[in-house]
Amino acid sequence: MTFLSRLTRLFIPFAILLPIAAPVQAQNCIIRATEADQPQYAMPDDPWIYRGTDIPVDPQWLFGEMPNGVRYAVRQNDVPPCQISLRVRIDAGSLHEEDTERGFAHLLEHLVFRESSTFGPGEAIAHFQRLGASFGYDTNATTSPTATTYNLNLPNANRTTLDDSVRRFAGMVIAPTLSEANLAADVPIVLSERREQAGPQRRVAEATTAIFFAGQKLAERSPIGTVETLEGATSDTVRAFHRRWYRPENAVVVLVGDADPQVLAAVVERHFAGWQGDGPFVPAPDFGDPVAPAGADPANPVGEVGVIVEAGQPRAVTYAIMRPWVGVIDNLEYNRRNLLGEVGLAVVNRRLENRARAGGTFLFAGVGRDKISRSVDGTFVTYAPLTDDWETALDDVRSVIADALSQPPAQSEIDQAVATFDVAFVNSVEQSRIQAGSQLADQIVQAVDIREAVASPEVFLEVFRSIASRFTPEDVLAATQALFEGDVVRSVMLTPTPGEATEAQLLAALSTPVIASGVARDDAEAINFADLPVIGNPTLPVSREPLGLLGAERLTFPNGVRALLMGRDNEPGRITVRVRFGAGWRGFESDEAIYAELGPIALVNSGIGPLDQNALDRIAADRKLGFDFEIDDGTFVFQGLTRQEDLEQQLYLFAAKLAMPSWDPNPVERARASALLAYDSYGRDPNGVLNRDLDYLLRGEDPRFRTPTPAEMQTATPDGFREVWERLLAQGPVEVAVFGDIDREATIGALSRTFGAMNLREPLPADVAARGVTFPEAGAQPQVLTHGGDADQAAAVIAWPLGGGSEGIVRSRKLELLSQIFSNRLLDGLRERAGAAYSPFVSARWPLDVDTGGVMFALVQIEPPLLPAFFDEAQSIANDLAANGPTPDELERVVEPSRQYLLRAQTGHTFWLNQLQGAAFDANRVAYLPTIYVDYDEATVEEMQALAAQYLARPGWQLQIVPGANATGNTPSGR
Known about the structure:
Elements lengths: L2 H9 L50 E4 L5 E6 L7 E7 L13 H11 L9 H7 L8 E5 L4 E7 L4 H16 L5 H18 L2 H13 L14 H5 L3 H11 L5 E7 L3 H12 L29 E8 L6 E9 L7 H26 L4 E11 L3 E10 L4 H17 L4 H21 L5 H14 L6 H12 L4 H11 L4 E8 L7 H9 L31 E4 L6 E4 L5 E6 L7 E7 L11 H10 L10 H8 L7 E4 L4 E7 L4 H13 L5 H15 L6 H13 L11 H5 L3 H13 L3 E7 L3 H10 L12 H4 L13 E5 L6 E8 L7 H25 L7 E5 L9 E8 L4 H18 L3 H18 L3 H8 L7 H4 L4 H6 L3 H11 L5 E7 L12
Parallel strand pairs: 2-6, 7-11, 14-18, 19-23
Antiparallel strand pairs: 1-2, 3-5, 3-6, 4-5, 8-10, 8-11, 9-10, 12-13, 13-14, 15-17, 15-18, 16-17, 20-22, 20-23, 21-22
GO molecular function: metal ion binding; metallopeptidase activity
Organism: Aurantiacibacter marinus
């Protein structure tokens, strides 16, 4: 259902999970250049990434190219302060592998971190953790079909750690220890990763890739490789791959951080200039082009098609108009054509969405252009039919597209698309000053991958505005038509039912001429906020109280609404509005799970006042507005990112949703259809079962949290949806937090005209406010669920109850540290020592808005025979932590990343918002904030042991998800 998705944010690395740092002294740790920092190969007048283009050079980057072929890009950036971000990109991925080397590029990624000339066995991750870099978020690597990229975000960098870290990364990449012993350690881990990726989604992805890229290397070059080639890898064969591709000519080094560019360039040169290739340079292989079948009609070049049958998966059809990938001259004219095409696609996608909303035969449909792995330049059309009548849905989609290709769009459609792009480009300019160094480093890597240049946000905005005003309907039509022209058309249909479609039927449906339909055109004029009904009589707050923290204050309005304000001028043009209201999960009755399931999809789209979904889209086109919604344990949450000039409109949308909600039935019907189509997929692999059932089980089988069955979902009606959500929107307190680059008095005025103008709220009923959840009793044996997927896949959870409530804020911080210590041990025990699982992890959750529901749990995907080993290992770790606590080094490896996160986090207003949310009604949020740094920084081994003894000494509740009687290891049938 929703528990796993709600906890997803807790599964990602520790550094982005911690609460917000208390105020600390602003840092200034720029590493300044000295006479010794004189790079030899920097080329400010001839940057390699701009050669052959007329795009203005971004002067903030310093580019260099060394005689051995290594290219680099460096830039000074102090967001966050004191951090450096290093990327080493090798232009070799799975497309560079021979048939006997499939998976070697990714295997090398693991071996590089295993041991090298600068690290002993298994030392790398722990070394960087001690420096404050969290594993997975700050220290990581990725392998794609075209490249392997090694990443490091190092906090609290100084001249010594900067130089040493670049030296060590250079040694890892240039001289990994590719021994048989290291292969024996890493191959089982990679095979575990491969097994965890298995199941319906990977089978469908591999079959789809084989069809779309038939005749090209990409068709059979998944980076994960094959069992046969991985198990057959030897130190000699892996070393040969490394020797062939890990060469200076294939390397790009990017270094961004709180240092003078001369310092950064000199460091890169110092550690990479001496790298020499072994043997002659080998050019990249030919990746191949999409080719139409022999004798195909150029006017209808439909090529390979396939029907993939995968039980439990929702129906979907994708067809692609494919062109060869060609290197481009990334100049201003090329970007002008691209922007015209993007506007054209925005118009088409808006029409497809209009059609889906207004009774189309498909749940959703979309069109996008994608240049894939330097293999294909394609326009991809994807849709999900509402029923098994996929042919009618295909005709429906194609008729909308045919209309867009036959006549120019209305100027109002173009204006809406252009306004949306303009807001995005303006926002990029406003945020450029605070763009994180890690993001800037990634942008260079991405530009190198697609063989294009980079441009500053100011250049993008200038180019866009210089041409957007001249976009004519005829220009947009021509650009749209060009995107639907190509050398070959290929298509894949995914269906859960054998015999539902054949390749011949799919080919015939795609080849049948279609009649253009203008039913989805939307040429309505823009809507003015000034014409919308007012919320009520504007009312000023009756009190304004300082929180005693960075100028934050609390406002109280006569109607009971409270607001939190914090102004932060270091993030220009960025404001977050978060509205917390009502009861959250407490508010649902035991028979209302179906409407809880539909709420996050349908509630926002059901409209406000006179505005339906399409009107909401039009009114937001030229503004920076957002409307996210989620259900938390004790509250509902609206959130939007905006700017001061649009703040009142953002507040109006949220207040109007509470004060004058509309109840368009179409979004409810669409959400119900989506839930029905998705349900069968839950039982097809362990992850799906976890998403369906873990929330329900960890809450003592509380029916509010149970994923509704299709039969139950069929009973949902728009009237029933309205009855439930009208009650929930009307009751309970409201807290409005406005944090960021605000004009304080203008913001208070806007609040007075929106939330301050609302009527009095209904209080939460006493029984609703008091509702909690229970934790299941641990049994002598694990609870067992089954899945219908691959026979070699299983998953397991072991969990212990914690608590909840804001009185436990300090305890929740300590428990987070304990969970990370537990996670490191489990990773070491199952992955590094046994190779049994790729990504086991432990997470702690302590809800602050309610007093129950906290849990610490460990989760793993693993082979079924190894399930007992997981439970034994996890319980053994829990028992040992309770009896003996962690070692000082184990504690330091999680404390130092938390210290560094706290120092980095204070620069962003959203971090403060995450910590202070709820403070309008709960004094504990402010009272416990001053100790946050010392709660982590001064955590002791004894505290960790005491918490483990309190919560983990008892046997954990256990769940295992194993293959059922219908589990298979087969590939999908049909082609």
